[in-house]
Predict the 3D structure of the following.
Amino acid sequence: MPILTNTLEQPDEPRRGAVWSIAEPDRELDANLIRLPPHAEIPSHVGAEVDTLLHVVRGSGVLVTEDDEQPLRPGDVALLPRRTVRGIRADGDGLEYLTVHRRRRSLQIQSGPSTVSGSASSASESSTASSRRSS
């Protein structure tokens, strides 16, 4: 079922941070509406292991990269490739922007290797033996 929200009709709180996020547990994308109050910033940092699309919804600011600074205004879209340096600074109006990226799987602790017969290595060995017989 589609999820529909209006980015212009969000509550006034919180004043900073994620105002809206996709909550659907089985999704493959993450999307967040981020709000920065006037003159606030997200310091320059190396981005995560995913490409991120940023769409400015309201306000204005600056996208800081390793090479330069680019103005941000409503309607602007920026592709932030994975592992690149980026920072965001809001102007006097504040800034709201939507980010969209592939969902990052959380780290999960797993127990040691399975000893059940038919494991991946057994299947691989069977496949190799079968290939030799048919050659």
